[in-house]
């Protein structure tokens, strides 16, 4: 463990001891009835409840700077009661049903910041960011509550190449993120090869983001963890929603089958194979401009006809077996398909046509059974299966060659989770997880004839446990846990401690300290730049203990939160180190493109956010600074050099206006250019290999983009609601270069290749719900 990390850990432990001592100063608790009376007088509202519902519940006074929405949210978490707003003045207080037992387990976790960026996004005392898509209002450039788009608005999270599903959290690659949909690990998260989120935004109920201090029950990912869930409640009435934008049509429904059973369904399909819009043209150019589709010899190509489509489907069955147990079954399917036909002239002036295709499909299934046992012990068991399949067939008429490639991942698992709320101040969580991942890679080439099939399997056994502790004053929150992993095929045992600490310093200030050690056995590599037609270049691989070791990470962060009078200011500094990465996983397009080595990267930085709300306006500015460096023993003579994902300065600014049924969002996005490698001024004409300067020594021009969106809600009738949305991505059509690399042409002349971001891209939507 290096000296910097030891020093940081010493600082963390010292801070925890001092803050825990401070947190034991107890505030006097009062009956809930008294607190509700004070709220009624202050906010001119009226609570309706049965006396036995709130009898015996004691809580401390709530912060005086909270608005009514914040007060209600806090009461829900602290008391584990339902607070239903019946009108502007009347609020009903009731006991939660047994179907809310999962929320009861989490009752020690409280929201410390509501409206983190906009309504529906909150920050909790365990260090996570949570979003309730039902309460979500609007973000610039978005006309739907897209969970992966929302995540990229958070400080410290960005997509370097502008793809929605390629999320880089504090300098990490996308494959280092754990993305769970209803407990299913997703190996594909986007349509249109990353430009559109593959998760239906209208059935997804909430999502949680861990940037650090991850719960011990989550493993096998060294960067962030993002969990996505649909609604877990059985509704009394059928709800239906349908809508369309310039790329796809979708629909969803929630159907109560009985008082104890309900079904949720959602489906979406593009119509890009039937109707082409300006939005489609922008997306197509962004993804396919630098791929095989545009690399053919234009002198002989007469025609190109492409057909692209995507669809997704997910379903959830909810069954409340009895008063103390429930069963949930989830299914998800995603599909991308690209077919393109080319027509060429031959040397004899005849015509010849070829057909190539690329398919990308994911399927996931999970079953969860939860039961409340004696003494309020909560038991949860989960079985899950995830499958990802990427297949490409490239018919290369120039070289008279056919190449078939496939990358397949099959992930099976089971998890047992036992939780007990010992007291209002203490919760214990223990569990076991078994996981088996199989990865198959195959390649079949005709001319020259070649075939290769490899399959690797890793089975993992993991024990995890954590303790959540509140001080009696509820000013101090502390979660301490660990995950013990045994990787069967690799004969490796790894222990991963994690912690989260939150201390209320005053009515306006909070201190937050987070830390974690994590590991990962499945990751993506980029073997050749033209893998899978040059469109989807990444393929999943498993650690083997030799040239692909187990990736490990260590991270610690400390931050301050100021929240007073609708002004929020947060600043968080962090140190992050990820070791045992391979050069093949970093996408080098320089002198290291076909060189493999094992190394690490280290990120030091901070995230800053200021958010002010004034009546119907909400505005925020975030700034992130980071320094992200590689270190490979055999690359660059062992000297450190800038990470390919090193964006040293990132600024986001947004203005949100919300008036009744109309919402407007305007946002500006700027960041410094990413590193790239330039060729030397003098090239050896007798050598077809490009000679380069120092790796990643130059930087692309700064990136700038302006987005705007608007949504208007209205009613067609008493039972039918509608909304119209419009957005423009890159309003000023600014040309942004997101990647630059160099190649040689047939005459060994140097060619500069620039990958450009999305140009001016409009979109409109219309939705009905009833």
Automatic annotation (TrEMBL):
<keyword id="KW-0998">Cell outer membrane</keyword>
<keyword id="KW-0675">Receptor</keyword>
<dbReference type="InterPro" id="IPR036942">
    <property type="entry name" value="Beta-barrel_TonB_sf"/>
</dbReference>
<keyword id="KW-0813">Transport</keyword>
<dbReference type="InterPro" id="IPR039426">
    <property type="entry name" value="TonB-dep_rcpt-like"/>
</dbReference>
<dbReference type="InterPro" id="IPR012910">
    <property type="entry name" value="Plug_dom"/>
</dbReference>
<protein>
    <submittedName>
        <fullName>TonB-dependent receptor plug domain-containing protein</fullName>
    </submittedName>
</protein>
<dbReference type="Pfam" id="PF07715">
    <property type="entry name" value="Plug"/>
</dbReference>
<keyword id="KW-0472">Membrane</keyword>
<keyword id="KW-1134">Transmembrane beta strand</keyword>
<keyword id="KW-0812">Transmembrane</keyword>
<dbReference type="InterPro" id="IPR037066">
    <property type="entry name" value="Plug_dom_sf"/>
</dbReference>
<dbReference type="Pfam" id="PF16344">
    <property type="entry name" value="FecR_C"/>
</dbReference>
<comment type="similarity">
    <text>Belongs to the TonB-dependent receptor family.</text>
</comment>
<dbReference type="InterPro" id="IPR032508">
    <property type="entry name" value="FecR_C"/>
</dbReference>
<feature type="domain" description="TonB-dependent receptor plug">
    <location>
        <begin position="146"/>
        <end position="220"/>
    </location>
</feature>
<feature type="domain" description="Protein FecR C-terminal">
    <location>
        <begin position="29"/>
        <end position="89"/>
    </location>
</feature>
């Amino acid at each position: 463990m290096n000296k910097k990390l030891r020093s940081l850990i010493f600082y963390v432990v010292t801070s925890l001891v001092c803050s825990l001592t401070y947190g034991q100063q107890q505030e006097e608790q009062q009956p809930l009835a008294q607190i509700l009376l004070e709220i009624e007088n202050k906010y001119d509202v009226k609570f309706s409840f049965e006396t036995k519902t709130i009898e015996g519940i004691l809580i401390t006074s709530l912060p005086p700077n909270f608005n009514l929405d914040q007060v209600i949210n806090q009461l829900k978490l602290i008391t584990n009661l339902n607070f239903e707003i019946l009108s502007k003045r009347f609020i009903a207080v009731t006991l939660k049903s047994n179907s809310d037992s999962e929320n009861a387990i989490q009752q020690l976790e409280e929201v410390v910041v509501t409206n983190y960026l906009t309504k529906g996004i909150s920050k909790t005392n365990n260090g996570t960011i949570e979003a309730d898509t039902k309460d979500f209002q609007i973000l610039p450039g978005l006309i739907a509550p897209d969970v992966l788009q929302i995540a990229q608005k958070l400080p410290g999270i960005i997509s370097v190449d502008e793809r929605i599903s390629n999320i880089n959290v504090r300098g990490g690659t996308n494959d280092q993120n754990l993305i769970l949909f209803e407990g299913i690990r997703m190996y594909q998260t986007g349509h249109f090869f990353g430009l559109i989120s593959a998760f239906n935004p209208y059935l997804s109920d909430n999502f949680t983001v861990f940037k650090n201090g991850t719960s011990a029950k989550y493993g096998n990912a060294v960067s962030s963890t993002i969990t996505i869930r649909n609604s877990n409640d059985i509704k009394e009435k059928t709800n239906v929603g349908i809508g369309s934008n310039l790329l796809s049509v979708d629909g969803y429904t929630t159907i109560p089958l009985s008082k104890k059973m309900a079904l949720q369904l959602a489906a979406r399909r593009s119509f890009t194979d039937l109707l082409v819009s300006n939005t489609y043209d922008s997306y197509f150019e962004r993804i396919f401009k630098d791929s095989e589709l545009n690399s053919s010899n234009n002198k002989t190509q007469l025609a190109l006809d492409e057909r692209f489509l995507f669809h997704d489907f997910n379903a959830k069955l909810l069954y409340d077996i009895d008063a103390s147990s429930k069963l949930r079954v989830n299914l998800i399917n995603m599909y991308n398909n690209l077919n393109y036909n080319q027509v060429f002239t031959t040397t004899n002036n005849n015509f010849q046509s070829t057909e190539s295709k690329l398919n990308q499909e994911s399927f996931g299934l999970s079953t969860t059974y939860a039961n409340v046992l004696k003494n309020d012990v909560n038991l949860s068991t989960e079985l899950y299966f995830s499958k990802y399949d990427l297949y490409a067939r490239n018919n290369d008429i120039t070289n008279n060659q056919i190449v078939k490639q496939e990358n397949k991942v099959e992930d099976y698992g089971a998890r047992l989770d036992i939780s007990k709320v010992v007291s209002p101040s203490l919760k214990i969580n223990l569990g076991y997880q078994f996981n088996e991942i199989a990865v198959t890679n195959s390649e079949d080439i005709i001319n020259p004839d070649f075939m290769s099939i490899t399959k690797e399997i890793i089975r993992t056994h993991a024990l995890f446990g954590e303790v959540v502790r509140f001080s009696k004053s509820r000013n101090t929150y502390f979660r301490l846990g660990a995950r013990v992993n045994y990787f069967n095929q690799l004969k490796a045992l790894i222990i991963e401690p994690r912690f989260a600490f939150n201390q209320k310093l005053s009515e306006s200030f909070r201190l937050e300290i987070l830390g974690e050690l994590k590991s990962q056995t499945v990751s993506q590599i980029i073997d050749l730049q033209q893998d899978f037609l040059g469109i989807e270049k990444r393929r999943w691989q498993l650690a083997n203990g030799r040239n692909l070791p187990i990736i490990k990470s260590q991270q610690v962060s400390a931050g301050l939160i100021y929240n007073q009078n609708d002004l929020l200011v947060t600043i968080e500094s962090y140190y992050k180190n990820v070791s045992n990465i391979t050069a093949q996983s970093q996408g080098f397009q320089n002198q290291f493109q076909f060189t493999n080595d094992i190394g690490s990267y280290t990120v030091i930085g901070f995230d800053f956010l200021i958010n002010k709300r004034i009546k119907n306006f909400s505005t925020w500015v975030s700034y992130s600074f980071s320094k992200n460096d590689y270190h490979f023993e055999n690359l660059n003579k062992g000297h450190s050099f800038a990470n390919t994902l090193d964006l040293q300065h990132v600024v986001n600014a947004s203005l949100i206006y919300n008036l009744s049924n109309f919402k407007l969002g305007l946002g500006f996005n700027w960041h410094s250019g990413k590193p790239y490698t330039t060729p030397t001024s003098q090239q050896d004409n007798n050598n077809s290999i490009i000679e380069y300067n120092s790796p990643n020594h130059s930087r692309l021009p700064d990136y700038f983009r302006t987005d705007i969106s608007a949504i208007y809600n209205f009613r067609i009738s008493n039972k039918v609601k509608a909304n119209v949305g419009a957005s423009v991505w890159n309003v000023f059509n600014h040309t942004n270069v997101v990647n630059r690399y160099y190649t040689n042409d047939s005459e060994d002349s140097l060619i500069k290749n620039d990958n450009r971001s999305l140009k001016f891209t409009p979109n409109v939507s219309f939705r009905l719900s009833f």
